[in-house]
């Protein structure tokens, strides 16, 4: 029997992520976007011109779900789809001015959620939590080309 608490690691990580998502949805809902739409918006702003299929991979959701999400976001003026010049079958996704402006708001909301999550921890404890999570991600990444935490510094997921 393990008495150091590590048997609860998965539950704690899952609960912390779920609670952060809920808090983010609560604070970010005034912009009219769901958490999934915010995640997509952040990715599109950071990876301008990303292929629609690659976007599905990065967000770890089915291509049809990304397509539907993009349909709604395109109708709302958040993103623009363009055909790839080299391969007309490929759809490239670009942010609009509206989404670029909202990106600043999302960073602010994410920062607020992160501050709430880390409240009561010293600076040293905060760094230890971050280093521990980065190490866990690295240990379990199975050689993925680039771990998302390296590409999303400060961005909400």
Automatic annotation (TrEMBL):
Keyword Heme: no
Gene3D superfamilies from the UniProt entry: Winged helix-like DNA-binding domain superfamily/Winged helix DNA-binding domain
InterPro entries in UniProt: HTH_MarR-typ (IPR000835), Tscrpt_reg_MarR-type_CS (IPR023187), WH-like_DNA-bd_sf (IPR036388), WH_DNA-bd_sf (IPR036390)
Keyword terms of this UniProt record: DNA-binding, Transcription, Transcription regulation
Metal-binding as UniProt keyword: no
SMART domains, sorted: HTH_MARR (SM00347)
Molecular function, one GO term: DNA-binding transcription factor activity
PROSITE patterns registered for this protein in UniProt: HTH_MARR_1 (PS01117), HTH_MARR_2 (PS50995)
Residue ranges of every copy of the HTH marR-type domain listed in the record: 6-138
Protein's recorded name: MarR family transcriptional regulator
Organism expressing this protein natively: Borborobacter arsenicus
